[in-house]
Amino acid sequence: MNVGILGTGGMAAALGGAWTRAGHRVLIGGRNHERAKLTAESIGAAAHGSLEDAARHGDAVLVAVPAAAAPQLVSDLAGPLAGRTVIDCTNPIVATSDGLLLDEPMAGRLAAAAGGAHVVKAFNLCHVSIWTLHRPAFENVPLAVPYCADHPAAAAVTETLISSIGCTPAACGGLARAAYLEATAALAIGLWWSGGQPRAMFPPMGQVA
Ligand SMILES: NC(=O)c1ccc[n+]([C@@H]2O[C@H](COP(=O)([O-])OP(=O)(O)OC[C@H]3O[C@@H](n4cnc5c(N)ncnc54)[C@H](OP(=O)(O)O)[C@@H]3O)[C@@H](O)[C@H]2O)c1
User: How far is it, in rounded angstroms, from Cα 69 to Cα 183?
Assistant: First the structure.
């Protein structure tokens, strides 16, 4: 599959590297040509270019820029993104004295900003380091990757990208539920930072009466 990535930072390199190893043709797109080139070379990506090049390249396009920059960027690229699967991994989270809080939910904003694109929320829960692992699995269970999508074809594209890196897709409903994934990230990241173990909170199926 052709995958365009908007951004040249940690998530672009980690997920772009995983998809490149899985055989996808990844184009790293950045506003800084040299950084796009360096990131693409560091992961052996097929190509690099501008943000618009990435938008035009992808059957799927990953938005891997800070949440604060994402709506304007997606709006600017609405033309080239039309009809494509746009995967939003951003976490619109703000640190406060009361812990991490959610800013305005993002996925719906991106869907409105992009107009004709098929926005999917996915890959926002795990730290960047997890996506650098080969086929991430914990306690012998492949990592489940939850996603929210409205459009069936975009859901199928996302499932392919998740499965191809050895993870298990977990369909969590339509984009109206994407804010729950964002809220889950705010909660889990706070727990991880404080030394807690979010994984320990959920009993395995079969133990639930
Ligand atoms: N890091 C994590 O563990 C993690 C986990 C899950 C989700 N996320 C989400 O993933 C997204 C990317 O995180 P990251 O860790 O990869 O960030 P990062 O390493 O700081 O990279 C951010 C990228 O966004 C680009 N950028 C910033 N403002 C931009 C703008 N206005 N227009 C175009 N490009 C812009 C930067 O380009 P320049 O180099 O030119 O500034 C850089 O390439 C964030 O929304 C974050 O919430 C991160």
Answer: 19
* pLDDT exceeds 90 at position 207: no
Quote the pLDDT of residue 77: 98
The Cα 198–Cα 195 span in angstroms is: 10
Q: What number does the ligand 1 atom closest to the CA of 125 have?
A: 6
pLDDT, position 7:
98
For ligand 1, the distance from its centroid to the CA atom of residue 139, given in whole angstroms, is 30
User: 186 CA to middle of ligand 1, Å?
Assistant: 17
Tell me: pLDDT of 147 over 80. Answer: yes
Question: How many Cβ atoms from other residues are within 10 Å of residue 50's Cβ?
Answer: 16
At 208 the pLDDT is 77
Which domains are present in the chain?
A: 2-200 (3.40.50.720)
Write out pLDDT tens, residues 101-119: 999 999 899 999 998 999 9
Q: In the predicted model, what is the mean pLDDT of residues 11-36? A: 98
**Residue 6 near residue 29 (C-beta atoms within 8 A):** yes
CB of residue 39 inside a 6 A radius of ligand 1: no
Indicate whether residue 91 lines ligand 1 (CB < 6 A): yes
Q: Ligand 1, residue 14: give the atom nearest the CA.
A: 16
Mean pLDDT of the chain: 96
